[in-house]
Specification:
alpha+beta, 167 residues, ubl conjugation pathway, two-stranded antiparallel ribbon, UFM1 conjugating enzyme activity, 37% helix, Ufc1, Ubiquitin-fold modifier-conjugating enzyme 1, 4 helices, 5 strands
Length: 167
C-alpha cells in the first residue's frame, strides 16, 4: 500500500480500539458502534473521492453482513452480492468475505465463494488486532481482490456483462 491514493484512503478509515467479538456481550456493542463509525467514514471518503464501490448492511446483532459490491471495467458496471459472518474469534480472526456467484470461477477463492486473502491481507490483519475492522477488510481485502480478479475473469470470458432490467 505504498501509493498516495492508498495511503489517503487508509488514513480516512478510523482505527478501532475495542478488542471484542460477538461473544463479549457488553463490549461487542461498543465494538460494533466503532465498526459502524469506521464504515460510515470510509463510505463518506469513497463518495467524496468518486470511488463508491460497495453497500453493506448487517443483521440486528451485527454478526451477519450482506450487500453489494461493484467494479467498473471497460465502462461497464459489474455488480455482485457479498456476504460474510463475523467469526466468533473476531477481531483476532478477520471475516471471510464471500461472493457466492463467483464460486468456482477462480483459483483465488475458497468453497462457498469466499475470496482468498491468506497471502497478503491475513498477516496484515494479524499484526494489527484489534485496530482493523470491517471497513479495513473491504479496503485492503475485497477492493484489491476485485480490482485484480474481476478484470481477469472478464478477459477470460468467465464473467460476462449482464444488463440490468429496467422493470
Amino acid at each position: 500500500m505504498g501509493d498516495d491514493k492508498s495511503k489517503g484512503t487508509l488514513s480516512a478509515i478510523p482505527l478501532l480500539k475495542t478488542n471484542a467479538g460477538p461473544r463479549d456481550k457488553e463490549l461487542w456493542s461498543q465494538r460494533l458502534q466503532e465498526e459502524y463509525l469506521s464504515l460510515i467514514a470510509y463510505v463518506e471518503h469513497n463518495k467524496k473521492t468518486d470511488n463508491n464501490w460497495f453497500h453493506l448492511e448487517s443483521n440486528s446483532e451485527g454478526t451477519r453482513w450482506f450487500g453489494k459490491c461493484w467494479i467498473i471495467h471497460n465502462l461497464l458496471k459489474y455488480e455482485f452480492d457479498i456476504e460474510f459472518d463475523i467469526p466468533v474469534t473476531f477481531p483476532t480472526t478477520s471475516p471471510e468475505i464471500a461472493i457466492p456467484e463467483l464460486d468456482g470461477k477462480t483459483a483465488k477463492m475458497y468453497r462457498g465463494g469466499k475470496i482468498c486473502l491468506s497471502d497478503h491481507f491475513k498477516p496484515l490483519w494479524g499484526r494489527n488486532v484489534p485496530k482493523l475492522g470491517i471497513s479495513h477488510a473491504m479496503a485492503l481485502g475485497l477492493g484489491p481482490w476485485l480490482a485484480v480478479e474481476v478484470p481477469d475473469l472478464i478477459e477470460k470470458g468467465i464473467i460476462t456483462y449482464k444488463e440490468k432490467d429496467s422493470s
